[in-house]
Amino acid sequence: MTSLYLSRARLRRDATLNALAALLVPAATAERASASHKLVWALFADAADRRRDFLWREDRPGHFMTLSSRPPDDPHGLFDLDTKPFEPALSPGDRLGFTLRVNPVVSRPAARGERGKRHDVVMDALRTVPAGERAAARMGAVSSAGQTWLARQGEAHGFVPIGEVMVDGYDRLCVPRYPAKPAIFGVLDISGVLEVRDPARFLVRVSGGFGHARAFGCGLMLIRRAR
Fold this sequence. Notes:
Blueprint: E1 5-11, H1 15-19, H2 21-24, H3 29-41, E2 54-60, E3 63-68, E4 79-85, E5 95-102, E6 105-109, E7 116-120, H4 121-125, H5 134-157, E8 159-177, E9 180-196, H6 199-208, E10 221-225
Antiparallel strand pairs: 1-3, 1-4, 2-3, 5-9, 5-10, 6-7, 8-9
């Protein structure tokens, strides 16, 4: 695995930034995801043709975590930065606590022979539920779909969830992307304990991110040693 850096970035609280707070940290979740996307990009935009080589998530408004292949740089003086190398030494059987904000999808072809189309796992789980019953079934669908998706990720990427996995925080976001069409996706917050089975495969996926919508703050799994 190439060198990685885990960073905490906090917008500075000074008079100038406070005056711009409504622009930098909008109250609406979808608008904030769009603004945060631009803010975090500013920490890694050292060249006009630079491709995204980092993951990020919002801890709370104006506070972000990033995992990147190079340290962030703050030429505009917007952030307080705390960066350290990300170099976990893992062995099979290690148990880790984790939190993950993710856009989980399932791919289903519309017809035989057609390429699969991505669907939000929660909406996919509700597709056979009559419209009038979906509100009541929603919370159960969030939990079961999230846990099923995570178990599949574990099978593919060298880990297995242990015990109770918490799945909550489901949102459907419509993020403006002018002049392109809005990005519409579902977001789940998943947390719990996992056991590492194949450290190399697991760390490759952690460094690359889980699920989709990674440009908008999804996919970064934060890990720590479980007690």
